[in-house]
Amino acid sequence: MLLRVIRGHQSDDDISLGAFLEQLGDRSFGWAILLSCLINLLPLPPGATLVTALPLLFFCAQMGLGFASVRLPRRIARIRISGAAMRRIVLRLRPVSRRLERIARPRLGAVFQPRREQLTGGLLFLVSLALFIPLPLTGWFPAIALFITSIGLVERDGVIVLAGACAGLLSIALTVFVAASLLIGANSLMH
């Protein structure tokens, strides 16, 4: 999909980030979440998710509210991207995208009906919230769940979206368990 949008933008002229995401349409959520997840999968210092999870919360909230595509704040949407630079990046990503396309393909289209997509966006918001809370041993699991789901959203693969959603539910459960354990431990230390 990304390759098609970039091929459609034949000239080397710059394109605004907002216009680019608008051209991606409903797949813009998948791309925005995917790119934001990559940052959260890096080894970061404790508490970094208080900053790095904010874009995910923003994108997933929009998806949950039923927006047609990602809407960025005006200042960010006006940022210009070089058409030539975009093509170079996509060409470098081509080997990875080819591998993904062997696994992911459009299937189980019922997952992408508007109400179900909103439900998915709501769940992803909760997973992003679990990522946002800086608890030990919980950061990577929500990021991986969001990453899996974003691949399904980009490729319109309902099976992968459902797998990511299940992983997301498990990551929420892990976050709740760790938070409860810390509260119980802190409570027993105080009494």
Give me some keywords for this one:
191 residues, 2% strand, 10 helices, mainly alpha, globular, 72% helix, two-stranded antiparallel ribbon, 2 strands
Layout of helices and strands, plus pairs?
Elements: H1 2-8, E1 15-16, H2 17-24, H3 27-40, H4 49-52, H5 54-64, H6 74-77, E2 80-81, H7 83-103, H8 114-132, H9 140-155, H10 158-190
Antiparallel strand pairs: 1-2
Helix pairs in contact: 1-7, 3-5, 3-9, 5-8, 8-9, 8-10, 9-10
User: What oligomerization state is this entry in?
Assistant: single chain
- N→C terminal distance: 58 Å
- Mean pLDDT comes to 86
Question: What is the H/E order?
Answer: HEHHHHHEHHHH
Question: In percent, how helical is the residue content?
Answer: over 70%
Task: Give the percentage of residues in beta strands.
Answer: under 5%
**How many strand elements?**
2
- What shape does the CA trace take? globular
* Structural classification: mainly alpha
If you compute it from the alpha carbons, what radius of gyration comes out, rounded to the nearest whole angstrom? 18 Å
Largest sheet, order of strands side by side? Answer: 1-2
Could you list the spans in which at least 5 consecutive residues all have pLDDT below 50? none
The helix tally amounts to 10
**Domain count:** 1
Main sheet: strands, sense, barrel = 2 strands, antiparallel
